[in-house]
Design goal:
Blueprint lengths: L22 E5 L25 H14 L3 E5 L9 H10 L3 E6 L12 H7 L3 E5 L5 H8 L3 H14 L11 E5 L10 H16 L5 E4 L6 H9 L3 H10 L14 E4 L5 E2 L2 H6 L33 H4 L13
Parallel strand pairs: 1-2, 1-7, 2-3, 3-4, 4-5, 5-6
Antiparallel strand pairs: 7-8
């Protein structure tokens, strides 16, 4: 694996500061039933890192007093954490919106029986990875058979009411480019996804989120191996739009790793760039309970251009979409 952080010191991303924290994004562990080529987490079946019940207790304590509106659960496959359902139940009792970043195929994994029904019963918003509407492209990026399994999962969610008018059960799909390029405009691509999935397969979803691939970890290492890293970084830099700085996710989100340590975003977490606070080396979530992070400086490096290039990119899709 090629280290990419030392290569990110050329352009100098603009300094930015936080607004109020509205979303707590929690990585429940790096174990996953897939090993995707673009994965910035390096997740896979052989990873063993998992958030403990004690740390989940800290997550719930922070939610209880912080006033955050959303709990965004990610991984790996977050559902593989044995405490996933308990965390969802407790968070919903506290009145926050819960988002499950689901790879779809997890719904068919042994031990996950009833998962789709649980998500629907708890009115969990599902944001699901489907990097293309063509089988060949999806299986190339995510593994053989993933496309067909993903379609079965969407059909199952649709049957439970997801993306059905008036149900209030939201299902979004996520697109990632296949290589070192920026995502196409989100709105027309969403229309094409809906046309193909609806016409060919009778499937529906609410929104398409287009995300840029970050030049870090597995994808970044691939760029280095192919001699494409510098060209991709140059593309991100020259495509930077100053107006996207207001909407980047790190201004209203904090990212928590499986041990409970705090970062400005999931990408910084993977680069081990912790939240900057009073010269501390790293900060645990338990230390932030009752603390306001507004105006706190955000730790930035050149990978941050991935969020401001072109139409912009965040956990909620294009910034100008």
């Amino acid at each position: 694996m090629h280290a990419t952080l030392p290569l990110m010191r050329h352009y100098g991303f603009p300094a930015i500061r936080r607004a109020r924290v509205e979303t707590l994004q929690v990585n429940l562990g790096y174990k996953c039933n897939q090993s995707c080529l673009h994965c910035h987490v390096n997740a896979g079946p052989n990873r063993s890192e998992m958030m403990s019940r004690e740390t989940i207790t800290d997550v719930l304590a922070y939610i209880d007093v912080s006033g955050v509106k959303r709990l965004d659960l990610t991984g790996g496959a977050p559902e593989l954490n044995v405490h996933f359902r308990e965390l969802v139940l407790r968070a919903r009792e506290l009145g926050v919106q819960v988002i499950d970043r689901c790879n779809l195929t997890i719904l068919e994994e042994p031990g996950q029986e009833g998962l789709a029904e649980f998500l629907a019963a708890q009115r969990v918003e599902v944001i699901a990875s489907l990097p293309c509407y063509l089988e060949e492209n999806v299986d190339r990026q995510r593994g053989k058979g993933v496309f067909e399994a993903s379609l079965r999962a969407i059909a199952r969610l649709n049957a439970l009411g997801y993306a059905r008018g008036g149900s209030g059960l939201e299902l979004s799909l996520v697109y990632n480019p296949q290589g070192p390029s920026l995502p196409p405009p989100q709105a027309p691509l969403e229309a094409e996804y809906k046309r193909v999935l609806g016409t060919r397969f009778g499937l529906s979803f609410d929104r398409l989120l287009t995300l840029a691939n970050m030049p870090i970890q597995r994808f970044g290492s691939t760029l280095v191996s192919k001699g494409q890293f510098n060209a991709y970084m140059a593309l991100l830099h020259r495509s930077h739009r100053e107006e996207n700085l207001e909407g980047v996710m790190c201004r209203s989100l904090v990212s928590i790793d499986w041990q409970g340590y705090v970062y400005d975003c999931d990408f910084n977490q993977m680069l081990e760039l912790p939240l900057a606070l009073e010269g501390r080396k790293r900060v645990h979530l338990s230390e932030l309970i009752g603390r306001d992070l507004s105006s706190n400086p955000i730790t930035v490096r050149d990978h941050c251009y991935g969020c401001t290039a072109g139409q912009g990119s965040s956990c909620g899709g294009a910034l100008d979409g």
